[in-house]
Automatic annotation (TrEMBL):
Localization, UniProt: Cell membrane; Membrane
Keyword Membrane annotated: yes
Superkingdom to which the source organism belongs: Bacteria
Species this protein is from: Cellulomonas pakistanensis
UniProt lineage: Bacteria, Bacillati, Actinomycetota, Actinomycetes, Micrococcales
Protein's name according to its UniProt entry: ATP synthase subunit delta
Keyword field: ATP synthesis, Cell membrane, CF(1), Hydrogen ion transport, Ion transport, Membrane, Transport
Signal peptide location: none
Length: 270
């Protein structure tokens, strides 16, 4: 999103967050209703153009979206009206913003019922489990397959286990990929969970799993380095001969033996 849209989304989040805190576990319902708005916007170019037309009266657009959501929870209708009153740099940004609020609402319900850390872990594990499953990944965002087929494939992958919010989000990522690859959406959701928990996720690749004390120590070191709380997710890779590869957002701290050997070879060749 560009400047105008980013500002509009930030304002919408500011208005919606107190609603989510008060809603508690009902955030799941609010999120699912906002997903319906996203689907309506994605399926109708004329609706998107009408609701993002900067020359149109904001109250008229708010009235239109209220009619569109006549059966929805009033809190969802109010959030949607706030969105359409705002200005957007691109017409697609409105649907993106509605999706962002929907994800936030679903995650807020997990925060309220105490399962948000579990959701974060389960989404991460699902993403890692798909790394070697190229054909499965392809089918999960293949728009030639009916959305219901993709949803059923996720149901088989999760096998009805895990937190309810994990299953809702995992299925939504397949049913409505919105131009993203499935694992990319899982990564986006992981970032949103981390943001919601006021933490940053560090993905650590190591030859062997780290014990609780090691994880806590590493989280403390990274937390002091980045000036904020860090949650450590460990990925075991037997090809790593020693050391750790730590990725925090786009930044990679590679201290594995293989990386040091590769660096030594580069220095010798220069």
């Amino acid at each position: 999103m560009r400047g105008t849209s980013r500002a509009s989304l930030a304002a919408a989040e500011g208005r919606f967050e107190p609603v989510l805190r008060a809603a508690g576990v009902e955030g799941l319902l609010l999120g699912e209703q906002l997903f319906a708005l996203v689907d309506a916007l994605d399926s109708s170019g004329s609706l998107r153009r009408t609701l993002t037309d900067p020359s149109a009266d904001g109250e008229a657009k708010a009235a239109l979206v209220a009619r569109l959501l006549s059966g929805a929870d009033p809190r969802v209708a109010e959030a949607a009206q706030g969105l359409v009153r705002a200005r957007w740099s691109e017409e697609g940004d409105l649907a993106d913003a509605a999706e962002h609020l929907a994800f936030s609402a679903v995650l807020a319900s997990a925060e309220a019922d105490g399962t948000i850390e579990q959701v974060q872990t389960e989404l991460f594990r699902l993403g890692r489990a798909l790394v070697g499953q190229r054909e499965v990944r392809r089918r999960l965002y293949d728009d030639t397959l009916h959305a219901q087929v993709r949803g059923e494939l996720v149901d088989k992958l999760t096998a009805g286990t895990g937190a309810p919010v994990t299953r809702v989000l995992a299925r939504r990522a397949a049913v409505a990929p919105r131009g993203r690859r499935y694992v990319a959406t899982l990564g986006l959701l992981g970032d949103l969970v981390a943001e919601r928990r006021s933490r940053t996720v560090a993905t650590v690749t190591s030859a062997a799993d780290l014990g609780p004390a090691q994880r806590a120590r590493l989280a403390d070191i990274l937390g002091r380095a980045y000036g904020r709380a860090i949650q450590v997710q460990v990925l075991v890779d037997p090809h790593v001969l020693g050391g750790l590869r730590v990725q925090v957002g786009p930044e990679v701290i590679d201290a594995t033996v293989l990386a040091r050997l590769a660096d030594a070879r580069r220095r010798l060749a220069s």
